[in-house]
Amino acid sequence: MGSTRIDRKIKKRKLGLIIIILLLLLATFVVLLTLTDVFNVKKINILGNNKIEEKKILLASGVNIGENIFKINTNIIEKNLLLHPYIKSIKVDRKLPSTLVINITEKKELLAIEYIGSYIYLDSEGKILSILADSKHKDIPFVTGLKVEKVNVDEKIVLSDYKIDDISVLAKICKLNGIYNELSKIEFIKDKKIILYMKSGTKVALNDLNNVKYKLSFIKSMLSDLKQKNLNSGTIRFDKGDNPIFIKGQ
Length: 250
Known about the structure:
Layout: H1 2-35, E1 43-47, H2 54-61, H3 74-81, E2 87-95, E3 99-106, E4 111-115, E5 118-122, E6 128-132, E7 142-144, E8 148-150, E9 158-159, H4 164-176, E10 183-188, E11 194-198, E12 202-206, H5 212-216, H6 219-228, E13 234-237, E14 245-248
Parallel strand pairs: 1-3, 4-7, 7-10, 12-13
Antiparallel strand pairs: 2-3, 4-5, 5-6, 8-9, 10-11, 11-12, 13-14
């Protein structure tokens, strides 16, 4: 009986000693976290940004070199940066001991709408990314002939005659059919007729946006055929019957 009580006391003392050691280690770790510069941010890596300048991302993030890496609220950084119209998604990670990694996925421009001497750049959802005084991005097709009703950055553009979703679908179908990179301009004219201007000089006259997927399925092969025949100046017309025809020189 006596030896059993002694064993219990020894075990309790050992357990108490272990707890004290753990608390001391924890206290030491807390001191390292808060009172030394070991875990202060010395470097911020920004990944995935092509359109947005690095200094603008740093400013919007609110992070400063020298801050304690564990005191930084990564959720707040992500919320702040998601306010930028060009940012689609973001992930902020700590890379111990002193590096913060900001990984960005940017939205891509799909179209630019001509508007009062400027260009409204839209993403694939029809949301406004930016409004610029000139067409700087020559690889983005621009759109003319539309009446714009409402313009707010990071919101869907509102048009009076068309739904932006239908126009976005037209551009997306051009991508799927492999002719988007050959497209320079989309013009909306009276009676809801549409003309696509290709970089080669060929035009494509669509009667309207009905059955546009079917109509554009012909275009890639027709453009290739015209290129082989050195026939670039002319119009592929879908408004003269059920089947497309090419009229030279128009």
